Structure prediction request, 253 residues.
Amino acid sequence: MITPRTAPSVHLRQKGLYPPPCRIRQLTSTCHKINYQTGYRVLPVANHQDETRTAYDGVVELYASLFANRLETQPFSRAMIGTFAELVRATGKLRTADVGCGPGHLTAMLHELGLDAFGLDLAPGMVDHARQAHPALRFQEARMESLPIEDAALGGVLAHYSMIHTPPGELPELLAEQVRVLARDGLILVSFFGTDGQEPVRFDHKVAPAYSWPVDRLAELLGDAGLDPFARLLHDPASDRGFLDAHLLARRS
Ligand SMILES: C[S@@+](CC[C@H](N)C(=O)[O-])C[C@H]1O[C@@H](n2cnc3c(N)ncnc32)[C@H](O)[C@@H]1O
Prediction:
């Protein structure tokens, strides 16, 4: 049993997700378990999904106020999502999951682009927000590691900055789960923090620990999962973030 945790009293002094969030990291990394036989607290026990869920639940309104804007200031992401939607439409299989949908704004965008889109997120607060903001669309609490979707059911999967919190060692399995639900020729768009290095790098994202990826390495993982990563877009936001805004578009072979 996990001891009751107060939701992180997130107080973000700066807008945006960068730079590193010492305060939030401290709060989210103190998940204790009580061993009721010994009475001792055991540290740390939080798996990363619990940590991510609690952290996002604590910032729903703030996150939505900053980012639920259908990418109006991010033309490169918008272009990739438009391309993704067009290619999914061309498969004739319109059913598309926005995995890690957060406040649901991109689910709404996919819907407007003609897809039968629905959103999934592990944070119940995000799902509640998405349902209220977009009452005509479907949202459900779910983990990307175990999707409540039958095999080969989807024409598209959008993972816009939602795999960023998955530790590198767990990413192959996570990708395999996305591939399981994609129909043959179905498409996946993965957007993430790119890095110039050779290895994925863990960093203190403002909400929960995250990883940036060398784009070739992530493309390789997509290939290993049975996908053909046939298009990519890298954008240097020219800010002090130190990350590339990276997008990989792949098709299930
Ligand atoms: C950076 S936000 C991105 C939200 C949205 N895709 C967007 O671009 O605005 C990451 C989202 O992914 C969700 N998430 C992270 N790990 C997840 C997992 N393993 N399963 C489902 N959702 C996850 C978080 O709860 C959060 O809402």
About this structure: The chain has one domain: 64-252. The domain at 64-252 is CATH 3.40.50.150 (Rossmann fold). The CA atoms of residues 107 and 145 lie 19 Å apart. Confidence is low (pLDDT under 50) at residues 1-46.
